[in-house]
Amino acid sequence: MASTASSAAVPRPLAAGTVPLQHAAGRRFYVRMAAAIVFIAVAGFVPTYWAPVARGSFSGAPILHAHGLLFTAWTLVFLAQARFAASGRFEHHRMLGLAGVSLATAMLLIGIGVSVHSIRGGMAEGFELEARTFSIVPVTIIVFFAAVVAAAIASIRRPEVHMRLMLVATISMLPPALARLVRLLAGAPPPGVGAPPTVAFSLVPNLLADLLIVVAIVHDWRTRGRPHPAYLIAGGALLAVQLVRVPLSGTAAWHAVTDWLLRFGGG
């Protein structure tokens, strides 16, 4: 490809103070995607968390409150960041991004802590095997999220890569919210009641969340003629993680990981 064509295709770094007209519509797409993510994340937890909290009937451990607040805060920060980028307020975007790094770090630690808490809860109720097996789902969700956020931060000077990786990372957190909606529609008991679901069940909300990545790929195809490699690589990695959970979850190797998590968590 000619050098002039290559330079035209490369976006200006975030330090630029204006939004090129050819990118403004694309950045508005990310605002709409972020708004959809906020809606799904909040709606999914209304029956099992937000409504009981509002009624004063939620009796979960304090770490569950920290988990709910941090993960909801991330979706709101993501929406704010998308709006800042769309309107060209990159100074605000950078300042909030620094807070986002700390937020993502806290989410990783709290996410692992909640996974350990769930394993212990399952053990106390007589579902040790099921709890250890299913724990691969929340653990890999938060580890994948943290890894892709780290890759997005490393790509901060390539905004076309950065914003796509941030979108994939945020979408990767949606399956727990979607799982609650699926269980509600299916008439199944809410999480925490009875044995944990099977790892195979997690494929349903995971694939539903992946449809948002498909929407983003289609948007790329329509606006730039081809999907961006960031979607293909990160999205492909996400799908691989989701599929490999099923055979890996029941292995001695994964159960050894849960032993380490319980020791790491002080139990």
Describe the 3D structure:
This protein is mainly alpha-helical and 267 residues long. It has one domain (20-264). The chain has eleven helices and no strands. α2 runs parallel beside α7 (159-171), α3 (62-86) runs antiparallel to α7 (159-171) and α7 packs parallel to α10 (229-249). The longest helix has 35 residues, at 21-55. The termini are far apart. Mean pLDDT is 88; it is low at 1-22.
Topology order in helix (H) and strand (E) letters: HHHHHHHHHHH
Structural class: mainly alpha
The shape, in one word, is: globular
Average pLDDT works out at 88
- How many domains is the backbone divided into? 1
Number of strands: 0
Distance between the termini: 58 Å
* Proportion of residues in β-strands: under 5%
Largest sheet: none
Number of helices: 11
Low-confidence stretches: 1-22
| Share of helical residues | over 70%
- The Rg value, from CA coordinates, equals 20 Å
